[in-house]
């Protein structure tokens, strides 16, 4: 999603067009009963990623943040269902709005209350797309290994959470070094030219 977004941004179109078009594409795919999880989730991910770009600094203004906190509380009381594996919200308008106001409310809360800015949470927030893009692979791999080991129910639960914790730790280490590895590769390739 991040690479797709960066590619689209190079077309120099109005930044608001990306979430509008990707949201429309998502709704079309969802209601057109597209069976491909990829074709449903990519526009959905692009919608939220591009909204993050569009709202980058606006979300911290009180005209945006205060209503988001109020909506976060009010919408949290309404019944809804979200399943990102299938790109599904019920009702759809509530899922979109809830996701957006949640991000704005939580980001604003963390900005205004520095005591909440615990280093691990900040790291996860800064790398949220990487965690979001890979968490299901980790979950499914953990489940498959536990099933392959044919453990009893209580042992399988312990195994699952242990594997999940190990994957999370390994993935966090990879992400923390990934940017420096990429930066060195880019600097090296530029210096060769």
List the helices and strands and how they pair.
Layout: H1 2-9, H2 17-31, H3 37-54, H4 62-76, E1 81-83, E2 88-90, H5 92-112, H6 119-126, H7 128-148, H8 153-192
Antiparallel strand pairs: 1-2
What features would you describe in this structure?
With 193 residues, the chain is mostly helical. It has 8 helices and 2 strands; from the N terminus they run ααααββαααα. The chain has helices at 2-9, 17-31, 37-54, 62-76, 92-112, 119-126, 128-148, 153-192, and strands at 81-83, 88-90. A hairpin with a 4-residue loop joins strand 1 (81-83) and strand 2. Helix 2 runs antiparallel to helix 3, helix 4 (62-76) crosses helix 5 (92-112) and helix 7 crosses helix 8 (153-192). The longest helix has 40 residues, at 153-192. The protein is globular, with a radius of gyration of 19 Å. The mean pLDDT is 78.
Short description:
The protein has 193 residues and is mainly α. The chain is 76% helix and 3% strand. The radius of gyration is 19 Å and the shape is globular.
Main beta sheet strand tally, sense and closure: 2 strands, antiparallel
The percent range for helix content is over 70%
The global form is globular
Strand-residue proportion: under 5%
Helix/strand class: mainly alpha
Number of helices: 8
Q: From the alpha-carbon coordinates, what is the Rg to the nearest angstrom?
A: 19 Å
Distance between the termini: 29 Å
Mean pLDDT: 78
The low-pLDDT segments are: none
Number of strands: 2
The strands making up the biggest β-sheet line up spatially as 1-2
**What is the element string, with H for helices and E for strands?**
HHHHEEHHHH
């Amino acid at each position: 999603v991040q690479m797709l977004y960066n590619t689209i941004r190079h077309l120099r179109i109005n930044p608001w067009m990306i979430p509008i078009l990707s949201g429309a594409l998502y709704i079309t795919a969802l209601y057109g009963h597209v069976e491909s999880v990829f074709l449903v989730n990519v526009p959905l991910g692009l919608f939220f990623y591009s909204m993050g770009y569009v709202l980058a600094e606006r979300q911290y203004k009180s005209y945006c943040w205060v209503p988001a906190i109020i909506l976060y509380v009010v919408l949290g009381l309404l019944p809804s269902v979200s399943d990102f594996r299938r790109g599904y919200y019920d009702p759809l308008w509530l899922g979109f709005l809830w996701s957006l106001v949640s991000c704005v409310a939580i980001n604003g809360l963390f900005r205004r209350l520095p005591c909440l800015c615990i280093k691990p949470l900040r790291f996860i927030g800064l790398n949220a797309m990487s965690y979001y893009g890979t968490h299901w692979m980790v979950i499914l791999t953990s489940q498959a290994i536990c099933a392959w080991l044919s453990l009893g129910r209580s042992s399988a639960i312990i195994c699952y959470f242990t594997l999940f914790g190990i994957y999370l730790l390994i993935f966090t280490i990879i992400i923390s070094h990934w940017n420096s590895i990429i930066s060195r590769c880019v600097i090296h390739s530029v210096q060769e030219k």
